Amino acid sequence: MRRRVSSPAMQVAIVIPARDEERSVGDVVAGALQQVPGARVLVVDDASSDATAHEAAAAGAQVMSLARHAGYAGALHAGYREAMAGHPDAVVQMDADGQHRPGDLPGLLAALGPADLVVGSRFLGPAPGYRIPALRRAGMAACRWMAVAAGGVAVTDPTSGLRALAPRAAARIAERGFPAGLTETSLLIHLHREGFRIREVPVRMNAPRSRSMHAGVAGGAHMLRISWAVMGIAARGRGHRAAPATAGPVPAGLPEPPL
Questions:
Q1: Separation between Cα atoms, residue 63 and residue 72, nearest integer Å
Q2: Which range is least confidently modeled, 47-51, 107-111, 182-186?
Q3: What is the pLDDT of residues 223-236, one digit of tens each?
Q4: pLDDT over threshold 80, residue 67
Q5: Quick one: 244 exposed, middle or buried, by C-beta within 10 A (0-12, 13-18, 19+)?
Q6: What three-state secondary structure class fits 45?
Q7: In a 3-state reduction of DSSP, which class is residue 73?
Q8: In Å, how far from its chain's centre is CA 51?
Q9: Is the pTM of this model over 0.70?
Q10: N or C: which end of the chain has fewer CB within 10 A?
Q11: What are the residue boundaries of the structural domains of the chain, listed by start?
């Protein structure tokens, strides 16, 4: 197991959006607190119909319950606003479905400083610990291509929701939310163009236990929204040339994004 973050001087807020995740959210919260002692774990309960809020609170989280279903982007935005009200030194974003491993949190936090946003990539280290469906793999490849072609952001895992952010990057999200309601590729391009430094570190993910917060992410409608948003960014940023983000090579077995 990786070393825990133990510096008492570092105040970390961990934002976990959750909807109907009673089976997994308690373990996620407990694991996060074990790996980052003293962290403020904030679970945003997106109008769940089960005991998500109870299980999260029982495991030690502060629960922010939304009266109406806001979706993944809406729940994250609410969580970032609440987290930044406490003026943390760093903010971590992770999912409640058990896909993201708490043991990777110290590595993400350690990479902050030179970077404003650290993305946990399932493709930089060992092979993912689960089989990624073909449609999802194709969607990821398309997102990588769009990130490079439209924004100059060379990341291997632009759809990863496991991230650590320095205060200025987290404050930007807290203030403005997510462009076009998208939390993935278009956000990375926006932040990169605004001068935020982005890098990746290797992580190992589990198969998600549910799809409650991510239903339709691999579907055509979602990819169309991403494509439309990225094309808009490209149209507004013609002539903009920024240095690529720090990242490793695209892993074997996944399509190389054409340049």
A1: 16
A2: 182-186
A3: 555 555 555 555 55
A4: yes
A5: middle
A6: strand
A7: helix
A8: 24
A9: yes
A10: C
A11: 12-236
